[in-house]
Each structure stands twice: as structure tokens, then as C-alpha cells.
Design a protein that fits this description.
4-stranded parallel beta sheet, 26 helices, 32 strands
Amino acid sequence: MIDTPAPARDYRDTVFLPKTDFPMKAGLAAKEPAILERWAKLGIYDRLREQRLGRERFILHDGPPYANGDIHMGHAMNKVLKDIIVRSQSLMGKDAPYVPGWDCHGLPIEWKVEEAYRAKKLNKDDVPVDQFRAECRAYAEKWVAVQKGEFERLGVMGDWADPYLTMKYDAEATIVGELLKFAESGQLYRGAKPVMWSPVEKTALAEAEVEYEDIVSTQIDVAFEIVEAPNAPELVGAHAVIWTTTPWTIPVNQALSYGPEIEYVVGRFKSEAGPADMRQPMQDVSRTPDVRYGRLLIARSLIESFAARAFDIKHSQDTVVTTTFEEEWSGTGSQLEGATARHPMHALGGFFAKPRPFLPGDFVTTDAGTGLVHMSPDHGEDDFELCKQYGIDPVFAVDGAGMYRADWAWLGGQGSVINKKFVAADGPICTDLRATGALLAASDDFKHSYPHSWRSKAKVIFRATPQWFIPMDAPSSVGTEGASTALSTNGVGDASTPTPFALSEVEGPGSSNGATLREIALDAIAATTWIPARSENRITSMVQGRPDWVISRQRAWGVPIALFVNRVTGQYLNDPAVNARIVEAFRENGADAWYADGHQALLGPDYDLADYEVVKDILDVWFDSGCTHVFTVEARYGEGTRANLYLEGSDQHRGWFQSSLLESCGTRGRAPYDAVLTHGFALDGQGRKMSKSLGNVVDPLKIIGESGADILRMWVASTDYFDDVKIGKEVLATASDAYRKLRNTFRYMLGALEGFEESERVAVSDMPELERYVLHRLRMIDTELRQAAESYEFNRYTRLLTDFANEDLSAFFFDIRKDSLYCDASDDVKRRSYRTVLDVLFHALVRYAAPVLCFTAEEVWQARFPSDDSSVHYLEWPSLPSLDADDVVGSKWREIRELRVAVTEAIEPLRREKTVRSSLEAEVTVPTMLLDADALAEAFIVAKVTPGDTVTVTRTDFHKCGRCWRHLPEVKVDGELCDRCEGVVAHA
């Protein structure tokens, strides 16, 4: 009979394995709504305000999205980034309120309501204005509620119970009050100049409401017969050639412009076709003479390009076509001074019979065209300014829908001018010009970039209309007085000269280099912190070059320009008592008060309503949003208070950043913000702009529903958001992986700290060197994290946090100390020191993570410290234990870690060859013994370390402890216990 050896004892019940109910699988999509519900019951936002009362305040003022449709990825990225910043400022001990807001007026909402009308075959203009405005208000209220829920689902913490809305009565009263400040200080005028106009939406547009797209337009060359040329009589009878890509402006032409220094020539083209030795002239003299072969005036350098357009003759391979130009006269543009030409449609009489003067223009170049530019002051900025100098005014031939006025002699009642067929080479404009012989060339093939309304996607035009402007360059010094410039009898005043009403004092910054709005704004830009720094150049150049601010819109849903204009003088009424009544009426009844029958009451007993025009235009919504700092920041935190930070996408340099800047500089002489942060746009995984037509839209609500908001938040924080960022399956997978690793770090700490009590805590001075090194690393990371949070660099912040968790903790500290945690006696100083440091790490890391992973940090905190009324978001930045000589420890352990990497790399080939199954079976030699042999063996997780010339690895002969699995010299047979484990088990 053979004796069977007794089975090896299972020591698992003696090992102190981590214990936690915190799940490895997040299940965020299901958990997060419950956490939101808990926060709502706690009233976490209001309680934070109570806890931080009296602390330094940090105000991030929310830029208002439109209350129109579900949120998209741009919204999600923007709101999450704001929330991370607000939460981080709160973590740093500040009172960081966040008041979300919505832009509720304007075209986006009005357009949607009109769409519903069109579906019912109704015309918005047939609906009473109060009814239409009520429907717009209801539409905005609906989407405010929807978006509010979607933003909250992202984990965004704020005053959702009392957000700001531009359509609230108090807000509307404040907006009109700010407008009247501009009026009272003389910074407002009505005039006519070309502005970007949407014929589809029938309103003026701001630059921020326009986007540029590549299109193909009709290009034409048109001949204007010269009838007078005092400095060059020989030009009379010749035809000046102009080139344009907007044929619809020819019916409104009033002049021609030349470059004074450009060299022009007059001559005739000759074209011959036929076999090479039998060419014949191509002109058929039996027909009406072809103006192309007459005497033409063109810039010398553009003769060839004009000929290519004008003589695009189809011929066979056997035919040779030759076009030559025979010069008869040459001179500079200055010789055209005083010359006039007649319009091709002069036979219509009236407007078209007036001579068209030649005017010098410094904007005329020879980059394209003919070197001569036709002038229509109704439809071009350069045209308007040049014609104005010579007393030529707009004629307003094109109406708001893009149609020629019914009484216009040529094409009256026809259009629209943005209709491709109408302006085509075979359309009515070109057909009529061709009949007169003046159309020299026409083709539907010119490719260029052209402005479109970003809402309707329709082309916009430049159109001169009476509008209200805030001047950028009008002085507004104290004490300036004068009479206003009256509007002309056709309702159009001097558009370049502001109405100089008596000015009230406008406070300016002490460092202001001037008294104009432009100068004050440029000073304010220089005094603001711009993040990234390059964005300062962008907004500076925009403000330097921008025209006067067009603040009027010809729509119904918005805050009206609440002014009374004297029907005789053209002056708007500037009476503080009247203005006060207007503001109070708006405060009681909202902007709808302007559409009621109470205008005489607003004027009071001193004025007769019959003497005044009631202005019906509404304010540009950018003026609305430019006032949000007044009825949100100042109204809630005190007059004169300004935001610490504005944060929006890079497109807002021409939008909200600028409108807020101009509004505040015009009324307060300073910017409404201390700093402005710009982020890029969210693109798809391939770096393309998201578009429904491309099918590449990434829906944040879908991501939240499938993976949870914290994954989206992790992505936002991980991106280099100062530039455009990508999001797609691969990008989200990377964010999910980073999240998973961080979650597992928390899970490990929760398990390792199970049952930890204060009595177990060890003083730093009594800790092993490794623990002191990790605390040293924590202090270094803490400093860097705080710097990153203070500079809003959450890409760096998140990378620091995850790298520390993965590399310093999981792959190093936890890896080394798992043996002590599992196998040392519970009262062992090393194990207690490890758990003490884990407790410090837990309190620090859960705080660091809270601004980014707001849901997961709460889940982690409640897993360790369950409570009905606590929250991780009440906590402040961690206070870390002080260290002595931590730099020395840090330097030493950096070397140890480098050596540990070398040892691990040396072991790996033996592991692949199965010489060793784990590092515990390896003996190594190292060139530097930075610790004693046993401590190094523990740090490298090997059996033995001895000194040597280089790092070498061999398989150990030591046997394996049956409890801790380390290979140690005192273990004589695999499965027996080492001295440590034997002692622990004996005292268990």
C-alpha cells in the first residue's frame, strides 16, 4: 500500500482580499438618472450656494443657445465644458454659481412658427401680431423645457429652477432700457446703407447669421456707351465694358468706377475663321452691328481674359479661329474723370436715361473682370460709399422679397433676384440686354464663395434699406450737443453720420485711447484675458474692421426698438421720463406692451402721438444676448459686477463675445467679462463637419442613452478643445477605456479600504519610504492639477489624473503593495501605512475626478460613505499631509522606478519562452542597489536581487510559499509557508 500525500492546504481564507459591492461594470445609462433624482431631492445647487456664501465668487456667464430643437453635439460639448469649469472652481472653494440661459427671440423661432403656418397654407402677415408673438413664445417655452431636461441629463449643475430667458418680462425691460441708454447718449441713428438681407426671411442679417458656400453664378460683360469724356474726347462713342456676377444689379446701376492708376485702352477686336490659308472675318455686317467688334474700353491687362469670355466660338478641328485686338487709344484711369456713359436700357427714359458718371475708386483692381466696375449704391458697400461722395443716393428698387418694385421701369414686379433662372444667361435680364446689343458675354459657370442665411440656407443680398445703427466711430464725449440730422423725405437719412443728440455721460475705462465705441472696445479687448491667446488677434481684427452695428430687424418676434420719431424733424424722441415709462411698461407686460394701444400713455401729456412715428422694427437678437450680462450677472450679483469668464465656440468672436463687448462698452465703457475662452467645433470621427445629408451626425442623447453622460464628459475633458475635435466610435472607445481604468482604480481602493478606521492610521514619519514617495507624487500631481484647473486646461487635467491612476498607482504602487495588503498581518505597520495612503489617495482622487465624472464620483463617494444628505460635490480641494525631505525621496524613487522598468523588460523574454511564469520566479542582478536586497525584491516583485554589472535575469531555485506565492529561501517545499505567512496564520 502506497501512502498518498496530503493535499496542500488552501490558504485563501487567510488572505485579506479587497471587498466591495462597487461594480466593475458601470451601467451609467441606468444609474445616472437615479443620481440626478437624488441631487434634485437634496437641492444640491442651492445647498452649495449656502455652503459657499461669503467665499470668493467665480461667475461663468452662460452664452444662450436658441430655444429651438433638441441639443446637438456642439451644445453637449459646450455645456459639459462649462460644468467642468464651474465644478472645479467650486472644488477650489469658491462660490461658483451657474445660471443657464436661453435666447428666445429672433428668426430661428419665428421661422419655425412660419413653417407651421406654411404647412397650413397660412401667411404669417395675415396673422395678428399679438397672436403670432404668443405662438412664438409658446414655441420657445416648449423647447426651453426640452433642452433643460437634456442639459440636466448631461450632469450640468445650475439654477435650473430660475434660468434667464431673453423673453422674460424683466429681461425684455432691461434690453429696451439698454437700447434707450444708447439713444440717450447719442449712440444711435437711422440711415440707409447696404446691409446683408435675406429675401426669403425678409429681414436684415448680422454677419454672425451668415455662412459662406461655394456656388456657380452667372457672369456677364456689359457695354455702356460713353457719351462724354472731357479729358479724352476721342472716347465718345466707345463702349466701356463692365463685368459682374450679379446681373440683377444692372437694373439699379447708377455709375461706373475706374482705377485712377490703371492703364486702359480703346480698340477693336477682329476674329477670323476658316482654313489656315483662307481666313475670313466672322462678323456678319448685314445684321445689327455686334458691339464686341466696336470700340471697347478695357484695362490693358484684362484684354485677353475678356476675349476668352466674349469670343468663346465653337468650331471644328479643321477651322482656325484668330481674335486680335487693334489698339486705338491708351491712357490712365485719371483721364476718365468727368466722363459719362449711358445705361444700356436708356431708351426706357426716366431713371435709365440719366447719364452714368465715371467715378474714381481705390477698390478697383485688375485681378478679374475688365478693370471697370459698375456701381449700384443700393447693393454694395463700396458702391454706396463712393456714390455717396458724389451725391448719388440709393433708389430702393428691390423690395424685401427680392422683387423689383412694381413701378420700376425695367422688370418691375419681377424677380426674385436670387432666383437662378431669373439671373441666368437666358433669363429676362440677359435677354433684354442682348436685345440692345450691350450684352457682350454671358455664361452660367462662375464658381465662387457666396453668403447664405445659416437658417434658411438661401442666398442673401446686399440691400440698402432704412435701418437703425449703433455707430462705431462717432465721438460720444461729455457735453457734446447738437441738432439731429433729420431723415430725408423718403424716410432715409444720412447713413454715415450719426444723429448727434445731446449726449449724456458714458463712463469709459481709464486707459481708453479714445471716445468712440470702436476705440473703447479695442481697449477692452486688450484688457481681457483671451484663451487661447491667439483668439485675441481674431476678435481685434474683427472689431477693427467691422462696420456700424445694424441693430434693426424687420420681424415681429423680438424686443421692439421702442422709439418715437418726429414726423417733421426726423429726430427720435429723447425724453428720460418717456423712456422710464417705456421700461416700466415692458417690465409689467413684456415687450408686447409696444404692440398694444397705449402709445399715447407712454408719451404722456407733453407729446401728441399724431406727431410721431412709432418704430415697428425689432432689435437684432445679438443685441438681446449682448444684454444678458445686465439682467443676469448684474441683476443677481450687483451693479457693476462682471463675469469672470465667457466660454463659447470660436464662431462667437463675431457673435456673442462681440455683441456683449459692444453693448457693455457702449453703456459701461468696459467689457462685461474678465476672460474669454474659445473652444473648437465637434467634428465626426474623420474630421468632417457633421451634416444630416452626410449621415455623420453624432447624437449626444444617443450616447448618453447607451453609455452614460460620464463617457461623454470624459471625452470632452480629454480633447484638445481649443481646436476642433473629433468624435466617433473609435474616439468614444478610447474615452470609455480611460473611464474604465479610472473606475477600476476606485473599485480597487474601495475594496482595499474595506473596514479602514482612524485607529489604523499611521503618521507620515513612521511610513515606509515607498508610501512617502507616493505621497510626494500626489503632492506634485495636486499642484499640477490645480494649475491646470485654474488655467482651464482640462485636457491636461484629465491626462494627469488618468496617468497618475494608471502609471503611478495601478501599475506601480498597487502592484507592489498588493502583497502587503493581502498577506501582511492586519496590524502590520507597512500594511497600515499602505491603507493610510490609500485613504489619502481616495479622498484626493474622488475630489479630482468629481468635476469631470460627476456621476461616477458621487457613486464612488456614496459607496464608501453612504448618506442621505451628503454629496461629493460639497467637498473642497483636498488638504494633503506635509512631507519632510520629499524631494530626496522623490529623486531616489524615480531611479528605482527606472530600474524597475529595466528589470521588467529583462524578464519579459523569459516569460515568453516560459522559462518563468511570473516575475516572482525570477532572480535579478542590478548595477545599483538603491534599497536593501529584500526591499528591492519587493519593489521589483521578484524572488531575489543581487548587485551586478548589468541587469540580468535567471530562474530562482527558491520554493513557492503556499499563501503569498512568493519564492523565498526559507520555504523548503512548494506549498509550505514562509516565515511571515506562518506567523500571520498562527495568530489569525
